[in-house]
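User: what does the whole thing look like in 3D?
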Amino acid sequence: MSTRTTLKDVAREAGVHISTASRALNPSTASIVNPETVERVTDAARKLGYRPHPLARGLRTNRTMSVGVIIPDVENPLFGPIIAGVESVLVEEDYSVLIGNADRGPSHADSLVEDMLEKHVDGLILATPGRNVSEAAQAAQAEVSVVLVNRSVDDDSIPAIVGDDHQGIGLAVRHLRELGHERIGHVAGPSWVSTGDGRRKAFLDWMKTVGLKSDADLVEEAEWYQVEPGTTAAVTLLSRHPDLTAIVAANDLLGLGCYRAVHSLGKDIGVDVSITGYNDMPLLDLMQPPMTSVRVPYRRMGADAASTLLALMAGEVVSPGRVLLSPTLAIRASTGPPPNDRH
Amino acid sequence: MSTRTTLKDVAREAGVHISTASRALNPSTASIVNPETVERVTDAARKLGYRPHPLARGLRTNRTMSVGVIIPDVENPLFGPIIAGVESVLVEEDYSVLIGNADRGPSHADSLVEDMLEKHVDGLILATPGRNVSEAAQAAQAEVSVVLVNRSVDDDSIPAIVGDDHQGIGLAVRHLRELGHERIGHVAGPSWVSTGDGRRKAFLDWMKTVGLKSDADLVEEAEWYQVEPGTTAAVTLLSRHPDLTAIVAANDLLGLGCYRAVHSLGKDIGVDVSITGYNDMPLLDLMQPPMTSVRVPYRRMGADAASTLLALMAGEVVSPGRVLLSPTLAIRASTGPPPNDRH
DNA sequence: CGTGAACCCGCAATCGTTTGTATTATCGGG
DNA sequence: CCCGATAATACAAACGATTGCGGGTTCACG
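Assistant: Here's the predicted 3D structure for the full assembly of 686 residues, as structure tokens:
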């Protein structure tokens, strides 16, 4: 139960005043103290195993050296990489990351933002969707730097790092088009979620671009980003358009739902009907068949968010409202040429 | 850029001394101040939007109200639930959780422990495996409370919450035995990882218990907890014992590796050869066929770890060295009666 | 009416740093 | 030889809360 060694101890050991010790240890002020003294202090500090007290320092400098990260659901594998990305860049700058798990709904996220502000974090990274959260974010912005990740607000008033959904859907549609598909459908996510809405629009856009008819009829909305809703959406979509040879799913889980729908019709995935997912979550390559999916650089997303947050906290003016990260396409066996194309 | 409202402001607003305001706001000391004054102070605090400064408080009380959680790999879906469990109980007590991602190897974990100590966390939850980490943990224990999760040290000198691997393997073996299997093999994890070693022993134990021959010959060790090593291990195991009707895998990924091995022999999973996994990770129910797996209550594990840490930090004497959490068995289509059993 | 208990409340020290200002020592130039 | 500039260090005031201690009221009781 030895009491921690404080700056006072170091100063006494080095035979200098506490303030001199402080300056000697601080790189930015070490220049104004005699080099020889600096060395003496440094030695003393090392010898005593001195570690500055972050609270005392933070109290004086008015910074906690911590940033909060609020995640809608920590158990969702999607957010692991984001957290890892954030952590990897912040840890380099000696910041600590506080994680908040908003798994009890959007209002929970609000109170978590509040909690974080009470803890006096220096910055905030939000990954929570939902309309009211943006209000909380706006409010928070008055006190600390805020960056959104995998999520943006309509007016771009808050810096956001997001995947380029338009481009991503484009990858999927063009891939299918190049394989020869002409009748492509879309199982969309809920329209009240920004990604659901955005990807639906992107799909219709790209259909036109690749020279296919772009009909709202070709889209069926799933109630929620889960397997079951995906299946029911795919079933109604396929009953409306039995001639579809490919489906672009707004999400991997929806894609897996499509798997079931196609199976229940006695058809083969990647042969009779091609399917693409979105997110390229882990294990997707182990499915039967392995699923073609749009891969979003989530880790990078977290890292970029952390970087812009650092810039923001440093008082730099961060340029645009929204940064789009380019996705890639992981091509696997769930997509192939349409059946009437093969000889 | 308005300066934050401090206790002094509240005191002035309420017309009392700062110390009185402090006591009034603090539930444990509010009793010694006039109820009417308490109300006046509380009102003033609310009116001004006062939020106590955690750093100032912590500096005085010598507690940061934060605990560190060190995870070997945040991107591994396994740890999501653990984090969620930890967070859910700690957030109730107004603690914040700092997460550390030791994805750059065991030595990285050491330095993270060091980092956490520098940040003066009140407690530490470690989920990192490896021999040298236990040393770091021992050292850390000198300064703060430490609890291990999903991991334990040999001498139980540090409280640990772990899954009951012996019982878990027992569930798998007994399930297979009850289905009628008599020739059961085991694809083990690396023996230098505690779970690898423990589950192997448990397997041999239970084979004896259910009245089958328990031969080290029936075990093949995979190099690492991944799909590929699982496949190669399963291949050599099946070539040594072509008559096996079931395989207990030490891990879900190894189980998926077994899938491939069995497929490559032209046999059917759950029909010719039954396979069980371990951990019941997400999406396992969507595999072809869905995999029977031992489900470990990871979220509960995190929650329990947090609870015992709270007890520890409160100075209570926590009873045993190791708490075992009972697993359950998620039975799916990868296990069925052995082929010669069916008529 | 005096006195002591009970009750509130204010005073001031303290936690470990950082940082503006004062003080001392050093040195060169007139 | 003295004076002003300069360098190096010491002093002390913050930062915002908690808390032991003591001073002041109020009130009951003798």
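In plain terms: DSSP finds twelve helices and twelve strands in chain B. The mean pLDDT of chain B is 91.
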